[in-house]
C-alpha cells in the first residue's frame, strides 16, 4: 500500500512539474512578452524599460527557475488589469468554483448512479433503452444552451431560482444542474456496464444462495464492485467540471475562477490566465491521484498487492 | 428415514431448450444423494431449481417440490430468500470466483448468520472461526481477516463450505465442488463433506460427473441424461447391476482397480448430449444407444429393476445377461 502510494505520488509530482514547465514555455513562445505587456502604443524605450523591470532580459533558464521558485510558493506575480496579486485573485474566486463543482458532481452522482443501476437491473428492457437515450441526449446538449433554457424556464418564467449570481445558496442550483449534465452520461454508462458485469458474476450467485435480500445483493455485493471504476471517473469528472465551469460561470455570471479566466483572457492579463490554467491543472492532477488512492482503498486486490 | 427433499416431475425450459424433462429425486435426512451425468444433461439446472436460483428466462414446473415436508414450489422470492443460506445451502464449482473480492472472508461468512438470525457481530465471528477450524483451516483468526485473493482454490472452497454451514442447514447442495481443484485437494474436500455429513446429519445433494467420487461418498445415485433421471438406485446396487445402457456406458468409461485389465482400452460413449427441444418424445439417449429399437421413440416406461432401483428404459431387467461392470 505504501509503495503503491509513493509510486503514484511520484508520478503526480512529475506530471505537475511538466505542467508548470509547459505553462512557462507557452507564454514565452507566444510572442515577445515585453511588447504585449507594453501595449500597442508603447515606444521602443517603453518596451526596453518593461523588459528590464520584469527581468525578461535574463537568460531563459534563469527566468524559468525564478518563476518556478515563486510559483511553487504560490506567488504568480501581479495582475495587470486588477492591480492585485494573482494569488489573491484566485483565492478569492476559488470557493465559488469549488462549490459549484461539488454541487455539480453531487447532482451528477445522485442522478447517474441510480439510473445506471436501474438500467443494469432491467438490462435489455425499455427502461434500459430509455436510460441510454437520456444519456445520449445529455451528451449531445451544449451546456451554454441548456443553461440558457433552464434560466428562461425556471428563472424567468417560473421564478423559482435566481438566474445569476450566488448571493444565496439557490443560485447554485441551475449552474449545478448544467454542470452535472456533462458528467451524467459517462457516469451512467459506466455504472450500468459495471453493474451488468458484477451482477453476472459468481459471487452474486453466492450472495443469492446465502439468502441475502435483493437490496443487499444489488448494493453491498453488486455496486460495491461496480463502484471502483465509477469513483475514478467521478474524480476526473470533477476536474473537468472545475475547468469546464468557464462557460457556465460566464452564462450565469458567477464570479468564480472560470469567470476570472474569461475576464483576463479578454483583457490580455496573461499572468492571471497562466495561473488559472496552472491551478486548474494542478487540481486535476491532485484529483487523479486522489482517485487512485480511493481505488486502492475500495479494491483490496490493489491494496494488499 | 424420512424425505428431506422431494422433487417430482421437474421440468425446466430455457428459451427453446428443454433443460430438465420430468426429473424426480428424493434426498433423505442424513443421506448423500449423488446426481451424475455428462455436462449439459441438466444436473446443475436441477440443483438451481431446488434453490430457486434459476437464471432469468427459465421456466420451472413441478408436480411437487417439497422441502422438509413443505411444498416450496409455490414459494415467492421472499420466502425462498429466507430458506436459502438458512435451511438449505449451496456450494459451487468455481471456488476462485464465488467469493466477493471486495470483502473479507469474515465479513462474508458472518453476513449469513446476521441476515438469518440477527446474531450480533462478535458471536457471528466466533461461529465463523469455529466453522473454519471445523473444515480444517488452520489459523482461522488470520483467515477471517483476509480477502479471497489471498487464499488458494482449496482454501476458498473450504471457506465456501464453512459459509454454507453457518446456519446449520438441513440440506447442502454441492455442484461439482471439487472439479476445479487439484486431485489431492479433491480428496480432502470429499473426506471433509463425508465427515460433516456424518457429524451434523446433513442431507447432501452432490452433483458430480466423477464416478470415483460417487462410489466413495454416495448412499444413493441418480443418473441424469438429457434432462431426465434415467436410473436411480442405492450406490451398491447401481455399481453391481446397472440397468440403463447409459449407466453401463458411463461405468465402462471409468477405470476400476482390480476390474479393468491392463492394456485394455477403456470404454467410451460415441456422440454428445443432444439439445432437446420442448415436445420431444421418447428416449433422449436412443441416438447414441447400441440397443435402440422402434419402441425407444414412444413413451418410455419407468420400471423398478429391484427395490428402490428405478430405470427409464424399454429393455427388460437384466438385459444382455451379466451386468457390464
Can you walk through the features of this model?
The complex is a heterodimer of chains A (305) and B (325). By secondary structure, chain A is mainly alpha-helical. Chain A has a domain at 97-255: MetI-like (MetI-like fold). Chain A has helices at 2-29, 33-38, 44-53, 60-72, 86-121, 126-140, 143-157, 173-199, 202-209, 214-251, 257-266, 270-298, 300-303. In chain A, helix 1 (2-29) crosses helix 4, helix 8 (173-199) runs antiparallel to helix 10 and helix 10 (214-251) runs parallel beside helix 11 (257-266). Chain B is an alpha/beta fold and 325 residues long. Chain B has two domains: 3-87 and 169-312, Rossmann fold (3-Layer(aba) Sandwich), CATH 3.40.50; 88-168, no CATH class. Chain B contains ten helices and 13 strands. In chain B, the strands form two sheets. In chain B, strands 7-8-9-3-10-11-13-12 form an eight-stranded mixed sheet, with helices on both faces. In chain B, strands 1, 2, 4, 5 and 6 form a five-stranded antiparallel sheet that branches. In chain B, helix 3 (105-117) packs across helix 4, helix 3 packs parallel to helix 6 (153-164) and helix 4 crosses helix 6 (153-164). Chain B is globular, with a radius of gyration of 20 Å. Chain B starts with a strand and ends in a 13-residue tail after the last strand. In chain B, 44% of the residues are buried.
Task: Look up the CATH topology of the domain at 97-255 in chain A.
Answer: MetI-like fold
Strand share of the residues of chain A? under 5%
CATH superfamily of the largest domain in chain B: P-loop containing nucleotide triphosphate hydrolases
Q: What is the CATH architecture annotation of the largest domain in chain B?
A: 3-Layer(aba) Sandwich
Low-pLDDT windows of residues of chain A: none
Number of strands of chain B: 13
Structural class given helices, strands, pairing of chain A?
Answer: mainly alpha
Structural class of chain B: alpha/beta
Task: Note the main sheet of chain A.
Answer: none
CATH class (first level) name of the largest domain in chain B: Alpha Beta
The domain tally of chain B reads 2
Strand order of the largest sheet of chain B: 7-8-9-3-10-11-13-12
Domain ABC transmembrane type-1 (chain A): 94-291
Family (chain A): Belongs to the binding-protein-dependent transport system permease family.
Transmembrane segments (chain A): 98-121, 133-160, 172-190, 226-252, 272-294
Keywords (chain A): Cell membrane, Membrane, Transmembrane, Transmembrane helix, Transport
